[in-house]
Design brief:
This is Probable RNA 2'-phosphotransferase. The protein is α+β, with helices and mostly antiparallel strands and 182 residues long. The chain has six helices and eleven strands. The strands form four sheets. It has a three-stranded antiparallel β-sheet. Strands 4-7-11 form a three-stranded antiparallel β-sheet.
Amino acid sequence: MNEQHKKKTSKFLSYVLRHHPELIGLHLDENGWANVEEFIVKSTNGSHGFTFEELSDIVETNDKKRFVFNEDHTRIRANQGHSVGIDLNLKPQLPAEFLYHGTAQSNVNSILENGIEKRSRQHVHLSLDRETATKVGMRHGKPVILTIKTKEMSEDGIPFYLSENGVWLTDFVDVKYISKDI
């Protein structure tokens, strides 16, 4: 599969598994899993066709590890970032003292006034390092990295979860836990 087709297929996979399974008539179970055979057949009917081998290649080589198969490769799901209601079965975990949130310069004033909201997603996404947060922020404009006092949040009883691909998740980050990197 050439890189352009792989990128297009990966975006389609994200769109369907995270946001709009109904686009192709796909059923996600309560934990976000879809039947792989059903996904391939229904995506082929919608002209986004690909083989199991191509799907496996995307799952294995995606730099952000957005997708995962179950043990016998009969089901697939997105690791996080859903706007559809599912339960990823994540267990609370203790985060590092600080985590980072990358955003565009245009969002900073609102965040420093209102905190970081999950909006249409199930969680706020945080990164373990500044480099990853910078890449996230760059997708939306000039990046700004916000340092989140996650140890303090955790001590205040706010739960954190770690997705299978290493993204830290929480429900909301209050302004008092945010500082802007210079």
